[in-house]
Amino acid sequence: DIDSEKEAQRRQLIDQVVEWALPESESADEVSCTVKAFMAADLPGELIVLLERIILQGSDFSDNKNLQNLLILTAIRADHTKVASYIDQLDNFDAKDIALICVSESHMLYEEAFTIYVKFAKPEHTTDKDEQIEMQVLAIGVLVDFMKDLDRAKTFANQVDEKPVWSKLGNAQLEEKMAADAILSFIHAEDASEYVRVCAEANEAEIYAEVIPFLKMARKNLQENLLDTELIYAYAKTNNLTDLEKFVNGPNVANIQSIGDRCFSEGLYNASKLLFKSINNNSKLALCHIHLEEYREAVAAASSANNVSTWKQVCFACLKASEFRLAATCGLEVIKYPDHVDDVVTTYSDLGHFDHLVSLFEQGLGLEDAHIGIFTELGILYTKHVPEKVMEHCKVFFSKLNVSKVVRACERARLFKPAVYLYMHDKQADNAVKIMSEHCSAFDNDLFLDAIVKVRNAEIMYKAVSFYLTMHPLLFTRLMEVLEDHVDHSRVVNQLRRTGDWALQLGQEYMKSVQKANLSAVNEALNELYIEDEDYESLRKSIDKFQNFNMIALASKLATHELLEFRRISAYVYRCNKKWSQSIELSKNDRMWKDCIDTANESADEETIEELLRFFCETSEKECFCAALYTCFSHVRPDVAIELGWLNGYHHFVMPFLVQNMRQTYERLQVLEKRTAPPKEEDAQDQIAQTYGQLGGFGNGMLMLENGGGMGGMPGGMMPQGQGGIDMSGFGQAGMQNGMPPGGMMPNGMPGGMHPNMSM
């Protein structure tokens, strides 16, 4: 109750102070003391009422700034609904400070703050123009920064129409990605300070028409690369080519190359054409013309650029557009570079323009700097598309071709004759022969024969032999004439044998021509052919001239031949190999008596001859017996002849032999007598002196005497020859065997060994 009473009394006191005491007071100290007391007692409601009575009801302290500030601040803390009315009614308070307190996070009285700034931006409250603008900027700041009401802010900016306000609004609009509105705001503000952000946002929003005025405005005060570049890009995007051309031809600091590339990459070819033209970038200009299907202009630009990459791109574009004449103009410039020839060929081929491709390379032959790649590629194209021209091209331009590439192309196209020609002229005879052997369409006998002798691998020659035997047997002899000095004939003959008997017959002429080398394999093969052909005459000649073969085997083979002449040849072969008995037996069997007699005579063997004589006697071949004695006269012992004649009654047939034998004996005795006759007297001394002179004196000083010498005691074997001495060389054989009759008596009755003029 006491507290209630005190509270009632306190309330009564406050009401009296507020209602009567303080409003009527004229003392500032009283007012100040009272306000402080209310503040100390934490009576904001009562304080508001008090201050209202003091300020609003017309006291001496109504215009006091501190009291007005205190009233608004107390209302902000205690009853913010009254703040707006206080702001409208009061004019003398610290607007900026109060507004900052209003927008603080603890109060967030944004409308009240905006009202303060608007009120004090008016001339009646702020006379300084700059301060007015500052207040307006702060006002729009409340709208855009705290209230986020950009529409209201835009309305406010239109009302005040001050550049700083528009600038503030523009920044806020940029923050909110309202690029178009921001651009307008900055234009009103004539503020280009945020041009980087504006350009970025404009590009992102793709509002190129809207950004052009801003960029023009910005260029009035700034000379920045970005501004000029973005203005060009904006012109390009809006297809404002007239202004674009005017701009790039005037003074600017734009990066034309960069923006040109940007426009080109985005397909703005008309704009990029103007840009590249302004900086004489003819390479890119040509590409722009291509995309705009201005092919003649593209070729002109490529000509000015004069680099292979541009020529190639223009060429391919013209080709795709079926502008073949323009494509050829560009293509001729491209194929001057060997590294790009394949690209041209591939593109033309992929598009199926083969005739135009061939025509292009034919024109390329006339270029001053035509290189080997042009001639080679044209040859390859001919193999694919104009095969009838391949041979002529190879012949005319052989020295300018890459032979290996053209040859491979010919082989792929199965044009083997040009391939052979190229191999031959490139000195690759091995490959030429291989092609002609494997492909009959490429075969030419004269060319083959010319190539075969030039091959490096000798095995190819033997393959050629098999090839001719199989495919061209009638030309085989001509082949072997050419290869005669280059092949192993024995191997060729063996090759013929393996092929068959017909191959041997085919190679007969060849073997005859090489038989002069006297090779065993050749001789045997020919002999077999002669036997097969029953050509005994050729066989006999072959055996006579060339005996390097197995003669015994041949003789054995012919011994049983059905034809007599071949058996005779067998006997002849045995005779040549000194197989006397086999030869004579064969001749006996065929009753070839003359062959028997000739063989026996050639053998010079007494036993063989005697056996043959006895055979003739046994078979009563009297005439053959006589002929054998006559033919083999020098090898028949007289006693054998006389014996056989006497036993068989062949006196008449043996008589010619005896007559001849007697005549020979007589002649030999005559020679012997002349040789053994004593020297004449007048020559004796000279002969003795000569003899001793030849002996070199008496040797050891002793005269050597010997019995039975009869010639001055000369030692046997020391008789000088050819100096008038006696030659006894034939005496023993002639005298004892043929000249001396039985009993050892000389024909004149003198004992054997006694000279008629010698005394006993």
Summarize the structure in short:
With 760 residues, this protein is mainly alpha-helical. It is built from 46 helices and no strands. The longest helix is centred in the C-terminal third of the chain and has 26 residues, at 651-676.
Record keyword descriptors for this entry.
mainly alpha; 69% helix; 760 residues; 46 helices; single chain
Describe it.
This protein has 760 residues and is mostly helical. It has 46 helices and no strands. Helix 8 (129-146) packs parallel to helix 10 (163-175) and helix 41 runs parallel beside helix 43.
Low-confidence stretches: 697-760
Which structural class do the helices and strands define? mainly alpha
Q: Helicity level, as a percent range?
A: 55-70%
Spatial gap, N to C terminus: 225 Å
Note the main sheet: none
DSSP helix count? 46
Rg estimate, integer Å: 72 Å
Strand content: under 5%
Average predicted local confidence, pLDDT: 79
Shape estimate = rod-shaped
Work out the number of β strands: 0
Write the layout of secondary structure elements.
Elements: H1 2-21, H2 28-40, H3 44-55, H4 65-78, H5 83-89, H6 95-102, H7 110-120, H8 129-146, H9 150-160, H10 163-175, H11 179-189, H12 195-205, H13 208-221, H14 225-237, H15 241-249, H16 256-265, H17 269-278, H18 282-291, H19 295-305, H20 308-320, H21 324-334, H22 341-351, H23 354-364, H24 372-385, H25 390-396, H26 403-412, H27 416-425, H28 429-438, H29 445-452, H30 459-471, H31 476-483, H32 489-499, H33 501-506, H34 508-514, H35 520-533, H36 536-545, H37 551-558, H38 564-576, H39 580-589, H40 593-603, H41 606-618, H42 622-631, H43 638-648, H44 651-676, H45 684-695, H46 731-739
